[in-house]
Design a protein that fits this description.
With 250 residues, this protein is α/β, with parallel strands linked by helices. It has a single domain, classed as Rossmann fold, CATH 3.40.50.720. 44% of the residues lie in helices and 16% in strands. The chain has eight helices and nine strands. The strands form two sheets. The protein has a seven-stranded parallel sheet with strand order 3-2-1-4-6-7-9, sandwiched between helices. The protein has a two-stranded parallel ribbon with strand order 5-8. Helix 4 links the parallel strand 6 and strand 7. Helix 1 crosses helix 7 and helix 3 packs parallel to helix 4. The two termini are 28 Å apart. 42% of the residues are buried.
């Protein structure tokens, strides 16, 4: 029975992805900063572990407890909404620490076992905002774009060893806790009031195409189980549309 480790499983995309793999009889290691076993159905194939991707010792303990893996899904992350000129550098460093460096650290920790076995898949969940420039999320977009570049380069290195790396690019999801978990800075500044109102209204619009957690779970499953899947897989109707505009095939 194959085993997948998924980060950021307390809610949203990570939680739905853990459910999706459980429903398909995989062993699932669902990780969270603060473990909550009650968010997932009880199963002998489920383990819920504590993991802070910004803490090397936490990574070491989680991987030791998890044992051999077949797939790693780097999903943990948070948002940052702010005009660029009003974004504290400390906040930029923090979002990169989790979204970028946390992904890299966990990937580095898992790759040796995949390379030595000659098999394994790393799926990095980034964002469709890396396909289309949007205002007020420059630092967040940059943290995700960095993961895209890291993934593509590392994939070229590991392909000769039978190890695959893929990207899943979700779109806008009012159902997730992105807005609740996102840091905000300078959004009350009068110079940006109209732009902030426009962006927040657009994000809350459920009449336009959006991404559902199920879309992301399905895309992660495809990336993990289909060797013919493309490097970048858009997840959600809006992400698919943006990918088409960018000339990205599915």
């Amino acid at each position: 029975m194959p085993t997948v480790l998924i980060t950021g499983c307390s809610s949203g995309f990570g939680l739905e992805t853990a459910r999706y793999f459980l429903d398909r009889d995989w062993n699932v290691v669902a990780t969270m900063r603060t473990p909550r076993a009650d968010v997932l159905p009880p199963s002998p194939r489920l383990r819920v572990l504590a993991l802070d991707v910004t803490d090397n010792e936490s990574i070491r303990r989680a991987l030791e407890d998890a044992g051999p893996l077949d797939v790693l899904v780097n999903n943990a992350g948070f948002g940052l909404a702010a005009p660029s000129e009003l974004t504290p550098l400390a906040a930029v460093r923090e979002v990169f620490e989790t979204n970028t460096f946390g992904t890299i650290a966990l990937t580095q920790a898992v790759l040796p076992q995949f390379r030595q076995r000659g098999a394994g898949v790393v799926v990095n969940v980034t964002s469709s905002v890396t396909l289309k420039a949007l205002p007020l999320i420059a630092a967040y977009s940059a943290s995700k774009a960095a993961v895209n570049a890291y993934t593509e380069s590392t994939a070229a290195e590991l392909a000769p060893f039978g190890v695959r790396l893929c990207l899943v690019l979700p779109g806008r999801s009012p159902e997730s806790r992105f807005r609740e978990n996102a840091q905000r800075h300078g959004l009350e500044h009068e110079a940006y009031a109209d732009l902030v109102n426009q962006v927040l209204t657009s994000f809350a619009d459920t009449a336009s195409p959006i991404t559902h957690p199920q879309d992301v779970a399905e895309a992660v499953w495809r990336a993990a189980t289909d060797p013919s899947s493309p490097m970048r897989i858009p997840a959600g109707a809006d992400a698919v549309a943006w990918a088409a505009e960018a000339g990205l095939s599915r």
